[in-house]
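Kindly review these tokens for lecture notes.

. . .
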Amino acid sequence: MWRDDARRGARVLRRYVPSRPERPRDTVPTPGSLPPHRTPTIPRYEAPTGRPPYRCGILADMVWEVGLIDVTPGGEDDFVDAYRKARSLLAETPGCRSVRMTRGVESPSRFVLLVEWDSVEAHEQNFRATDRFTAWRGHIGPYFAAPPRIEHFTDLD
């Protein structure tokens, strides 16, 4: 379709504009109003076996284990090495989703352990009540200035 274009001063130009069906600007396209290759789709999350589905971008029914660990001053680097060697004992435990250790900026001998679990029971039964925990504590325990404070948390949303 050819349209007159008078935006270029007094001289009128003609330009080719491909025709397309007009759609009111304030409407949202529905799946039937677009060609099949342009149909909007929302990918469906398929949870791996044994894991709960996503809820609003987070995994539903998961639990955070938060451990506040104070290390004997001067033994921080040895503690980090021991943690790196023993991390797989924790990370490969059934029901464990992720493991992360953070170090304090203002207090370099303070560490925070963050572990995602399927449930509190997964932590207690699959890790704490097994030889994995004994081996884990054997690696990192000698560097503790005091027993770590461990608590479990869940997401609010």
